[in-house]
Amino acid sequence: MYSLPSQAMRPLSLSPCLTRSSYLRFRILSSLSLPPIFHNSQTRLSFSKNYTRPHLFIRNCTSITAKPSSEFNRNRTQDAPDEKLRALRELFSRPGVNIDAYIIPSQDAHQSEFIAECYMRRAYISGFTGSAGTAVVTKDKAALWTDGRYFLQAEKQLSSSWILMRSGNHGVPTTFEWLNDVLAPGGRVGIDPFLFSSDAAEELKEAIAKKNHELVYLYDLNLVDVIWKESRPKPPNKPIRVHALKYAGLDVASKLSSLRSDLVDAGSSAIVISMLDEIAWLLNLRGSDVPHSPVMYAYLIVEMDRAKLFVDDSKVTPDVMDHLKNAGVELRPYNSILSEIKSLAAQGAQLWLDPSSVNAAIMNTYEIAIEKYLTSNNNKKSKTKMHTDTTGQSGGPAGVFRTSPIAFSKAVKNSAELEGMLNSHLRDAAALAQFWVWLEEEIHNGAKLTEVDVADKLLEFRSKQSGFLDTSFDTISGSGANGAIIHYKPEPGKCSVVDSKKLFLLDSGAQYVDGTTDITRTVHFGEPTAREKECFTRVLQGHIALDQAIFPQSTPGFVLDAFARSSLWKIGLDYRHGTGHGVGAALNVHEGPQSISFRYGNMTPLVEGMIVSNEPGYYEDHAFGIRIENLLYVKEVGTPNRFGGVSYLGFEKLTFVPIQTKLVDLSLLSAAEIDWLNNYHSQVWEKVSKSR
């Protein structure tokens, strides 16, 4: 860790004689001009502004003219014919293919959010580089679906050959609704079954069958790979490393023993694991195959008396080989997973398969092989045996279909993992403190810095911290209107210069050997408008409300989502993304099963030891974006009562980086909210100024 320059951070002094309107401009970080907010404890704040009725998500004001994104889409000029689409469509009539439409998802064979460059097929065919989206190509049309985080980015990146489908907006069809509408009845829709989860493939199959369409599994070739040809990047081949026990907190033998107990309880003889972070966590291994995520491409099958890791053995170092042997794990070639599934089925193995993550190629291979096994044993029943889990869901033939037990175990951090997360966050905070000092000095000295320049400099500061490995996602460095693109990625030669007269949003994170960070701050290097301050303050109020939430055990995350939106809702504003996601310990920056979101389907309870982000925001299209993000971990809290005999939970902060207070409209804050901000900044000074 690096100590901070003595002039960069100064202790706070809370003086009770100062009022809210008369507060000292001490600075926690000179780069942000961050004054503590003082108040007279005898005075209460009240809302004093009269608000006009909002129009949709954007309230009219004299300084901002925001156009709907659909208008920008209509005004796109016609591009030259898309040669990639032409080449792809030529393959539709190839023998053994014979399809009318082809679907290209974002995922790899493991349903990863971040994927190796060689698997970025949807980005290659469409030009849209956001992490979430699905492309559908027919013989005469091409459409791309993405969610609200990426509407503006997709508008910029898609050519006129593509139709942008804004998922979630009123009147926008789903992929299968669109296919049912544009294809003549009896069409054939092709997919690469390795790139769809079993659940997703079954849903698609059932939906298009309503118009008598057939879902065609193209096992032997991916059509995008065919046209990508030699220019397609090579698969990653970097070495795997052992994740030290002092960071993991639990050895592999203990984790496998617990998993095997789950197999016994489920009536299963083996489990197939395809999620890369689950494999890395279970085996205490880390890799470098996927950008920003310390994982390696592999499958894992755990049986009652053995385990098999399907991986490119050129990545396996002698240390890793010894580590695996000691845990009783054998190596198999990565591409032999289907043959192993067939072999286990031929023995009548009852496999545990998570249909939400295991790909359709594996699932379909298992089902076909089990049918053969039953036939060879003269068991020709019209309906094969099904196992049902505790939720009443049924699985495939002789299989146990339910959520992987590893996801929940991984989400509940042990003491060593929490310690590593806290330590890495303090080192990260020290790097950010130095970065913000540098950035404000540069801006005030008139330097012309692009959004990429800023992101690169932040990486430079972080890389000097001990244990630094990589960024945990592409840094979102957005000035002005670019900040409204929720997952904006600045590109060299195409990005903006950081404007001192506009809001600047910086969402970034890092991978350290002992932890994973994710933090967003929004700042202004000049004088913010009243509108910007109001929006920022309401986002801050939502952030504070969630941070202070106390809730009974077994509460799912969606119950808390409204805490973060309430202040925005009061004036008719909102944001189009979830409020919180799980975060891995030295693993993926986004992990499940927990979340805090307006989507009601996730009933996973928040449990002591889980980590979630707290990141409300507000975005005015083509104007500005605001987001404030800390990471929190769930802890038990003492309450004077325990209604129903249950424990109550709350949050503890992992992130300690100042929040720019000149963006705060004091008239909107309560005394308690002011206290929270002052206390938080006191903690920042106390913890980060001592970092080494």
UniProtKB/TrEMBL annotation:
One of its GO terms (cellular component) is cytoplasm. Keywords: Hydrolase, Manganese, Metal-binding. Residues 648-690 form the Peptidase M24 C-terminal domain. InterPro entries: Creatin/AminoP/Spt16_N, Creatinase/aminopeptidase-like, Creatinase_N, Pept_M24, Pept_M24B, Peptidase_M24_C, X-Pro_aminopeptidase_P. One of its GO terms (molecular function) is metalloaminopeptidase activity. Gene3D superfamilies: Creatinase/methionine aminopeptidase superfamily (3.90.230.10), Creatinase/prolidase N-terminal domain (3.40.350.10). Residues 420-636 form the Peptidase M24 domain. Residues 86-211 form the Creatinase N-terminal domain. It holds the Pfam family Peptidase_M24. Its cofactor is Mn(2+). Belongs to the peptidase M24B family. This is Xaa-Pro aminopeptidase P. It comes from Citrus sinensis (Sweet orange). The lineage of its organism: Eukaryota, Viridiplantae, Streptophyta, Embryophyta, Tracheophyta.
